């Protein structure tokens, strides 16, 4: 007998998610269906719940990160089998289809946005990786600017993909917000691409950024941190590429621009629309974290790197509860803000 699917549905923007039955998804030719074991919460989910941003179809099932067991594979799939333990980046954000939302027991995932999870890693740990990984690749490795939002282009830093055996690229970047999910993953993947990272975090999270590979870390609450970051870049004697700002707020942008000014310009890779006024020598863009640029990383890097301990499941998960009914509370906690943690609901 087919299993029963359930989901945490959003019926109207600004209302509480309601757990109820949902159709059991079926896999398209290039998709897999996952029986989820863990789901992670991302800030974009809060915007979707509160304001209905990106929702194309009501009622909606959304959410971007899943880990679980493959339940069905599409007809073109050779990389996965039923029963495999996997992590995946779900794409309801662009497809609008409820079956592509993470907040359910069963979810459809494009096979090129999934990877086998090594047996040594729990679903709860593994689920912190997918969306942040794709966002990080979009921040680092896009080669031609595309469109993030109408009138807002994507950054195109064109940096190398991560590798199990990184070759020094001779380049250095600054990662502002290196303890966030996106920033810590940018730090890990840039380091694995042979790029030196200078990180910016609160003092208590400096160690996390170092664990992710940052060569030096500075506290954004230190009044002279901009000068220290600039000095570290200059002292590296490497080619300065730019700033990846994973926080991208009115608080971070003035410091990003100051760093760029003192280092004669470069890229400013943002997670939100960049500042409206930037000097001519600054190329600013906003990532849109659903992009096939990440496919080679999903297919060739993620599983081997997790297996080798070269890709770490950071920031660590904070489990909010077990069951879809915990997702709404997890969204509220995410909205209130986290520090070097990924909120996870087990199902
Ligand atoms: N455009 C896209 O496609 C896309 C994709 C993914 C995410 N995003 C956006 O990117 C942002 C980050 O997402 P996330 O999941 O990485 O968030 P997150 O993990 O929830 O971010 C929390 C972190 O932000 C850090 N932070 C807060 N204020 C800071 C400041 N002034 N300077 C430096 N760090 C600061 C905190 O560091 P401390 O605790 O050390 O203070 C904390 O660890 C969100 O706004 C999200 O919506 C956009």
UniProtKB/TrEMBL annotation:
Sequence ranges assigned to domain Enoyl reductase (ER) in this UniProt record: 14-345
InterPro entries linked to this entry: ADH-like_C, ADH-like_N, ER, GroES-like_sf, NAD(P)-bd_dom_sf, Trans-enoyl_RdTase-like
Classification via SUPFAM superfamilies: GroES-like (SSF50129), NAD(P)-binding Rossmann-fold domains (SSF51735)
Keywords assigned: Oxidoreductase
CDD domains: enoyl_reductase_like
SMART domains cross-referenced by the UniProt entry: PKS_ER (SM00829)
Record GO terms (molecular function): oxidoreductase activity, acting on NAD(P)H
Family of this protein: Belongs to the zinc-containing alcohol dehydrogenase family.
Listed name of the protein: Quinone oxidoreductase
Organism, as annotated: Lasiosphaeris hirsuta
